[in-house]
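Inverse folding, one chain.
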């Protein structure tokens, strides 16, 4: 009998890649999405083209009755539905709270009431660590680096929610962890760094790797907030999907755990000073960017220390920065007409 899998936000970037992977594996997959985000309808069309067995539940995570209906017979739940942009959370904090914090609470309560106890995998964020102002940063020619943290930020770092987005995702992060403890649910939390790859319809305030490629392709202006030396570890979506599968297969190890996950110290990139030259080489031309003020809660450096997840799950990123960016570049070029229609 097929295992039943629910993906909230399943028509989004990560969700659609995850859905396709598990459909190929023979799971009974249900995508739960409100289809409000740009690109979600096209991602659904992409999925349904090859998988007529895909189940689609149009609903909103803020609707407790809808999510109760969606989770009632599931064996595995990937909770990806979210408001994903810091800037949007600053301009509309109530909406951000209702989607991220209340929406996650709705999901957990739905699972608790049914008593079925599916595996719950939650996509959290590195923003739960806040600005990390106490960490000493060194400035190099093209990037900032941690002076004293050669492997990056580990799971023992104190939480310090900074921005409404950090607060709402941080609250959800802790609710998922605690429901696992209090109600004996098999939950796993992944605090994700920058995930990128195909099916990502990046916009200016979220999905910067994809957005810079899309903007350059369409001739749209690029704005860099800060000086472009800020560094992130980036992870190609296929590597994340593989990790999610391992988390399920090894739930006896992962149950109740929180993991930092990203590209790690070997897959870092400064937002413009290092990414700009890669783009120029791919496009074969000089690319100009406009620089603007730093955004609230923006970290000069965020690099995930992924040694715990590497050790416990025998996982590591397989797709490096340049290879992954090139893959995403080619996907954008192949779908240029679609981006022109949507953006």
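Residues assigned per position:
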């Amino acid at each position: 009998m097929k295992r039943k899998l629910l993906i909230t936000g399943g028509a989004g970037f990560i969700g659609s890649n995850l859905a396709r992977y598990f459909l190929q594996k023979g799971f009974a997959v249900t995508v739960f999405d409100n289809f409000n985000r740009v690109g979600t309808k096209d991602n659904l069309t992409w999925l349904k083209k090859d998988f007529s067995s895909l189940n689609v539940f149009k609903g909103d995570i803020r609707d407790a009755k809808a999510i109760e209906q969606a989770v009632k017979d599931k064996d595995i739940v990937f909770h990806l539905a979210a408001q994903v942009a810091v800037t949007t959370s600053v301009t509309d904090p109530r909406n951000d709270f209702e989607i991220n914090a209340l929406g996650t609470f709705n999901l957990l309560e739905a699972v608790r009431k049914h008593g079925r106890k599916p595996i719950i995998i939650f996509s959290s964020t590195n923003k739960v660590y806040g600005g990390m102002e106490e960490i000493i940063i060194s400035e190099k020619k093209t990037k900032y680096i941690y002076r004293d943290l050669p492997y990056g930020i580990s799971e023992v770092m104190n939480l310090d929610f900074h921005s409404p987005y950090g607060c709402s995702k941080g609250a959800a992060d802790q609710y998922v962890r605690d429901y696992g403890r209090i109600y004996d649910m098999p939950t796993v939390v992944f605090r994700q760094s920058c995930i990128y790859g195909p099916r990502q319809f990046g916009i200016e305030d979220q999905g910067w790797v994809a957005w810079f490629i899309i903007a350059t392709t369409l001739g749209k202006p690029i704005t860099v907030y800060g000086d472009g030396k800020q560094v992130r570890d980036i992870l190609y979506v296929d590597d994340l999907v593989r990790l999610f599968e391992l988390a399920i297969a090894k739930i006896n190890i992962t149950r109740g755990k929180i993991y930092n996950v990203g590209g790690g110290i070997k897959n870092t990139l400064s937002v413009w000073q290092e990414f700009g030259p890669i783009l120029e080489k791919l496009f074969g031309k000089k690319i100009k960017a406009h620089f603007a003020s730093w955004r609230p809660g923006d970290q000069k450096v965020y690099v995930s220390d992924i040694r715990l997840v590497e050790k416990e799950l025998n996982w590591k990123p397989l797709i490096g920065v340049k290879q992954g960016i090139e893959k995403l570049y080619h996907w954008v070029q192949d779908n240029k007409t679609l981006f022109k229609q949507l953006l």
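The chain has 13 helices and 15 strands. The mean pLDDT is 95.
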